[in-house]
Amino acid sequence: MATQHIPANLRGLSARDLEQRRTEELHAFLAGVRDYRAGLSRLHRKSVDLVMETRRQRVVSGWLAVGLVPISFGGVYSANFSDFGGMPETRWLYGWPVFVGVLAIICATLYVVMRRRGWMKV
After folding, report:
1. 62-70, long-range: CB within 8 Å, 24+ apart, which pairs?
2. pTM given for the model
């Protein structure tokens, strides 16, 4: 028969005491596993929240880029240039409608490009 090595702190314990000690160690191990899983779950939730926040920031940045075009062009065209020879577009019959149409095309193009690249999807 093979002799089993029993640690000194366990010698002299009954089978029931050994079983209870083994059960306590197992419960402590399982509690550690539960804590580890809870920590991993919190970490996963935080990473998902970070990804969602990054996506929201991209959507806001995309809309700001689309909105910046009419604001900047509007700022240039709303200035009074009559003292400097004027802008020819302001004297043309269809100058302003063409300007607004080009502005709409630029904004729509920006929107389409950003949507295809995934910046306009939450």
Report:
1. 62/111, 62/114, 62/119, 62/120, 63/120, 65/110, 65/114, 66/107, 66/110, 66/111, 66/114, 69/103, 69/106, 69/107, 69/110, 70/103, 70/107
2. 0.55
